[in-house]
Amino acid sequence: MKTATTLIATAVAALLPTLASASCGAAFCTVNTNWTTQSATTEANSLFDLHYEFIDQDQPYFGSDRVAVGQIPQHHDEVRTLNRNLVATYSKNFGNGWGVTVSAPVGEHDHLHIHNHHGAKLNEEWKFTELGDIRVVGRYQVAVGSDAMKPSNAGVTFGLKLPSGRTTIANAAGAEAERSMQPGTGTTDLIVGAFYHQTLMESDASWFAQTQYQHALNSHDGYKAGGQFTADVGYRHGFGERFGAMVQLNLVHKAADSGVNAEPADSGSRFVYLSPGLTYAVTSNVQVYGFVQQALYRHVTGVQLTADRAFMVGVTGRF
User: Fold this and answer.
1) Is it the case that residue 215 has pLDDT exceeding 70?
2) pLDDT, position 155
C-alpha cells in the first residue's frame, strides 16, 4: 500500500503549471502534481486525473506593491478576475521509459474592470465558461542511481500547447475580452523541460525537482503570449497507510506579451509560491488530494491583478 500510495499521491496535471498574468488575464494554478508519471516506476500503466481550481484575482499590484483599484491612472481600472477551472489529464507510461500526457482545461471566468471614458467610469464585465488550450507532452525517463531503497528517475519532457481555445469571446455589449483574458492564445507553443524524482522507501517519502519552458512558435491576430519559465521543487511524506503531506516551492517567470493586440506595458511577471497539500488513498489505485497555493513574492510589469492564494482539489486513479 505504501509504495502505491507514494506513486499515486501526487499525480496529475503538472503540464498545466501556467499562470496567464497580464493585467486582467485568466489564471491556472502553478502547482506541480505530476510526480507519479515522473516517479521511479517503469511499469506500463495509465493515470487519469480530474481536479478543480479556485483562483480569485482581486488584488491589483504595481511592480512589487499592493495598490488600490484605480490608484494608478489607466484607461481600464482592473477590479477582479474570478477563475474556476476544471482540468482533466490522461497520462500513459509505456514501460520502456517513454510516456505521454494530454491535459484539457475548461475555465469559468468572471472579469470586471472600470472603463475610464471621457471622465465617466463605466463598469465592463465578461462571464464565460470555455475550453482552453490543450497540451500534449511526451517524456523520456531513465533510472539513475543503484540504491534499491532510494530509486530515482531523471528525464526530459517535450511537447506542444495547441490552439484549441477560442480567442474572440465578447460580452453582452459585443466588446471582446482582452487577449490575455481569452480562453486560448491562438498560438502553438513549444514546451520543453527536465525533471528528477527520488522515492525514499524506508521513510515512505519522495521528492522532486523540475524545470519547464513554454514559448509561442507563432502569433495570432496580433497577439503572442510571452515565454514562460517555471521551476518547482517538492517533498512528500506518508503518514500511515492512507494519508500523505506535501509541500512545494513554485517559481514562475513570464515575459511580456507582444503584438498590436497585446498589452506589453501590463504583462510579464515573476512569482514565487509555497504550496502545501494533503492526500488520502481511497484505495491502492485511487487517491484524493488538495493544495493551497500561497503567494510569497509577486512582481508584475505595470498594473496587474493577482491572487493572494489559490485552492485545488482533485482525484486521480491508476489503471
Assistant:
1) yes
2) 93
Task: Mention every residue, 6+ apart, whose C-beta is less than 8 A from residue 182.
Answer: 26, 165, 166, 167, 168, 169
Out of 3.40.1190.10, 3.40.1390.30, 1.20.58.100, 2.40.160.40, select the CATH number for domain 2-318.
Answer: 2.40.160.40
Task: Spell out the domain ranges in the chain.
Answer: 2-318
pLDDT at 236 over 60: yes
Q: In this predicted structure, what is the pLDDT of residue 33?
A: 66
Please choose, from the candidates 207, 200, 256, 206, the residue with its C-alpha nearest in 3D space to the C-alpha of residue 232: 207
- Tell me the pLDDT tens digit for each residue of 170-211: 999 999 999 999 999 999 999 999 999 999 988 999 999 999
| 150: pLDDT strictly greater than 80 | yes
62-65, long-range: CB < 8 A, 24+ apart:
62/300, 62/302, 62/303, 63/299, 63/300, 64/297, 64/298, 64/299
